[in-house]
Write a structure and sequence with these properties.
The chain has 2 domains: 155 residues, Double-stranded beta-helix; 105 residues, no CATH class. The protein contains 8 helices and 20 strands. The two termini are 29 Å apart. It holds the Pfam family TauD. InterPro entries: AlphaKG_dependent_hydroxylases, TauD-like_sf, TauD/TfdA-like. It comes from Iris pallida.
């Protein structure tokens, strides 16, 4: 059974002072539980959230390039969340999983809960591997033996709520250049993909060949999204590494494991959630405005 994130309610009012004094405990507890929820500490704005982030003493990790395409910096080390429309489900993932460099920790701040829905969901990624090993060991063996081919297709026109570089194609927004040679160089360096193709219609295809199961903190975790999806201006196609399709039964089993083992956080104003990005995936349920959840990433 999945244990919900470790939760703390206030005994003292100043959360920044508490985490500064208990840095080692916070880091150890986060690694043990995968997520920590701080609730009721009176955090009300991006600056308050920033003070807590700085008090933790973790190394800064910046949203830059591809990962920062939709982000607006609101305070020191504090950014807006995804520009994907709120009525769209953002499926489970590790933050920046398809980048060469990715953060060790993700921090969320619930500044304004949604009028309805809009929960952020969490699941230990090792649970996904363990349950899949129990139910379909042949699939896990195939993943470990052949890996996967993961293709990200970006459409020509941006679809989202951001106002940044909306006249560019999606790949130009992602890679911050219109030059094809430079774009390919940046894609291979930052995205860690194996090849990239820029199409005449303004779309692009980024292809990865990879082993989906990795080991972090002595846990076997499922690193990429395995279910092909389409969200806004991008879609993915995922197959086994030999090009054969992943059986629909396997995808259905994976989705069932998510549904039966995830924990939803119903945001309350001022909530802060710390997440171990190496071992825990997160998702966003569809919701109704207003909803403001800010984010920070750290190493």
């Amino acid at each position: 059974m999945l244990v919900p994130p470790m939760s703390l309610v206030p005994g003292e009012p100043d959360l920044a002072e508490i985490v500064k004094a208990e840095r080692e405990w916070v880091s150890q507890t986060l690694q043990e539980h995968g997520a920590i929820l701080f609730r009721g500490f009176g955090i009300c704005c991006a600056e308050d959230f920033s003070h807590v982030i700085m008090a933790l003493g973790w190394d800064e990790f910046r949203y830059t390039g591809v990962a920062g395409a939709d982000r607006v910096k609101l305070a020191e080390r504090v950014y807006t969340a995804s520009g994907i429309p709120l009525d769209t489900m953002i499926t489970f993932h590790h933050e920046m999983a398809m980048m060469r460099n990715f953060p060790r920790r993700v921090l969320f701040f619930g500044q304004q809960p949604a009028a309805a829905g809009g929960q952020t969901s969490f699941i230990p990624s090792n649970i996904l591997v363990e349950k899949l090993q129990e139910e379909m060991p042949e699939v896990v063996e195939k993943f470990e033996q052949d890996g996967i081919i993961y293709t990200l297709h970006t459409k020509s026109k941006y679809i989202g709520t951001s106002t940044i570089d909306t006249e560019c194609t999606v790949w130009q927004r992602m890679l911050k250049t219109t030059n094809l040679v430079e774009a390919e160089k940046r894609a291979l360096e930052m995205l860690n993909c194996d090849k990239v193709k820029f199409n005449n219609d303004g779309s692009a295809d980024f292809t990865y060949q990879m082993k989906p199961i990795r080991k972090y903190n002595n846990k076997r975790v499922m690193w990429p999204r395995l279910k092909s999806y389409e969200i806004g201006d991008r879609e993915t196609i995922v197959t086994y590494g030999d090009g054969s399709p992943i059986p629909s039964e396997a995808i259905e089993t994976i989705e069932k494991i998510y549904a039966e083992n995830c924990v939803d956080i119903n945001w309350q104003k001022g909530d802060i959630v710390l997440v171990d990005n190496l071992t825990v995936q997160h998702a966003r349920r569809p919701g109704k405005a207003p909803r403001v959840v800010l984010v920070s990433i750290s190493n």
